[in-house]
Amino acid sequence: MKIVCRCQDVTEEEVVAALRQGATTIDEIKRLVRAGMGPCQGRTCRRLVSQIIARELKEPMAQVFPPTFRPPNRPVPFKLVMAEYERQEADERKKAAKAKGGKK
Amino acid sequence: MKTRFDAIIIGGGILGVSIAYELAKAGLKNICVLERHYLASGSTGRCGGGFRQQWSTEPNTRLAMASVKRLEGIEAELGYQTEFFQGGYLIVAHSDEEVAQFRKNVAMQQRLGLDVKMVGPDQAREIVPHLDVSKIKMATWCPTDGHISPFLLTQAYANAAKRLGAEIHLWTTVTGLMKKSNTFFVMTDKGPYECNLLFNCAGSFARTIGSMINVDIPVDPYRHEILVTEPVERLWNPMVISFGIGLYTRQEKNGGVVMGMGDPNEPVGTCVGSSMHFMYEMSRRFTTLFPKLAGLRIVRQWAGLYEMTADAQPILGPVDEVENFYQASGFSGHGLMLAPAVSQLMAEQVTTGRTSIPIDDLHVRRLRGAQAVHREKSVV
Ligand SMILES: Cc1cc2nc3c(=O)[nH]c(=O)nc-3n(C[C@H](O)[C@H](O)[C@H](O)COP(=O)(O)OP(=O)(O)OC[C@H]3O[C@@H](n4cnc5c(N)ncnc54)[C@H](O)[C@@H]3O)c2cc1C
Ligand code: FES
């Protein structure tokens, strides 16, 4: 038994089983067996998965349909997102105030 | 490769594959699903996975109740695990107007036989411990609602349909339609197909498919964004909805908390990119209702398309202009949960000409002309 995706504990057999059900892309493997849905969002396992796809479907690696990359780049807590939002809003307000002051 | 079929279904989302399965089960031979990408690559694979019976219009409530009954036995019937989970739906009301509307909804739903009731803030907190109940007046609670994995349900139907002889042709884009006497010619990038029965299950692209044969299918696509957090210990079981704040959220089986929201400023269009605006706005709304969970980390954000009709109810059944051209689209953001019932009704319609639940009111002609529509109100 070989682990392909360590974040989600997905084995090579599971990936092969998904391919046998008709999957042909990294995104489908992700949706069916969750390889690539872990905290690293597939950064570690993506290459391994595409190697298995290429091998099983007997096509060159370059032919494997590329996955979609989705934000955020790293896990980010809600409160950090909110703090950043508030900072930007405050900046905007300052800028607006300045522009107004400059016109006088 | 075979290209002559009795029935062709355009679209490999949940509607396409479930209809293929039900047709095959009803005894139709020679069925083919045409999907331009892979299965569930459209709205289905991007959706929230919830199923609920708490609707404001009778047709939606009836269909959803039939669907849930069907879903209860689906894993056994299709022989596939789907993460089907009846964790309930808690819908919270923030204003007196909402409470009044919910009372009406609940009365109608109870009349149809649904196990649903109004609960106060304290009971709501018992059901969803992290909820800030100071923000809510009442809630409605239905314990037999729940959620399911959209990919696994799609694959379950697809595998079962294939076992019954149906074919699924992936990476095949329909580019044109023609009808000569009783035969449809379905043009694709892989060459022409022929069939006698044609199903439009193209989701947000149903209007494009209809226009290929001059049938107006008034479905407009709107982007809907959604995100998921890192997996954490079990927080609560149900899907929680607030129409007032505009959000829905549930915890997946593996622990990640999924949440999405409606945005009234979203223009019509088929773009499914992710926006920073959504990340901010979703964070604000979520932490308004769940202040204690502000430390949860977002791991992934994505988007899909809601396939809206003017009354937020689906378009089902035949059309007046072209015989044997069936529609199942315009689900307005709740197609996953209606598919199990709708697919069965579509199969009944083509094999017997009658349906066990009336769907005449959902014929596309209701949306044509200027008559007032009776809009489904319970949409996030
Ligand atoms: C963010 C979000 C959350 C949602 N949450 C829920 C929820 O919790 N519960 C619920 O029940 N519903 C939910 N929905 C709605 C649900 O996803 C849809 O109603 C449902 O998936 C519709 O299924 P479908 O098969 O009609 O459409 P789709 O899944 O979009 O399938 C249509 C298919 O047709 C294909 N297609 C299009 N044009 C062509 C062509 N020319 N040739 C060949 N193929 C073509 C597409 O590639 C696509 O795969 C949500 C939707 C979104 C976007
Ligand atoms: S190793 Fe697969 S998601 Fe991290």
Give a summary of the structure in a few sentences:
With 104 residues, chain A is mostly helical.
What does this entry look like structurally?
The complex is a heterodimer of chains A (104) and B (380). Chain A has 104 residues and is mainly alpha-helical. Chain A has helices spanning 12-20, 26-33, 46-57, 78-103, and strands at residues 3-5, 10-11, 76-77. Chain A has a two-stranded antiparallel sheet. In chain A, strand 1 and strand 2 (10-11) form a beta hairpin. In chain A, helix 1 (12-20) packs across helix 2 (26-33) and helix 1 crosses helix 3 (46-57). The longest helix of chain A has 26 residues, at 78-103. The relative contact order of chain A is 0.13. The mean pLDDT of chain A is 91. Chain B is α/β, with parallel strands linked by helices. Helix content of chain B is 28%, strand content 24%. Chain B has 9 helices and 19 strands. Chain B has helices at 14-25, 58-72, 74-78, 96-111, 121-127, 150-163, 206-211, 276-289, 335-352; strands at residues 7-10, 31-34, 50-51, 89-93, 117-119, 138-142, 146-147, 167-169, 174-180, 183-188, 193-195, 197-200, 220-229, 239-242, 247-251, 257-260, 297-308, 315-317, 325-329. In chain B, the strands form 4 sheets. Chain B has an 8-stranded mixed β-sheet with strand order 5-6-4-14-15-16-13-17, sandwiched between helices. In chain B, strand 15 (247-251) and strand 16 (257-260) form a beta hairpin. Chains A and B meet through helix 2, strand 3 and helix 4 of A and helix 6, helix 8 and strand 17 of B.
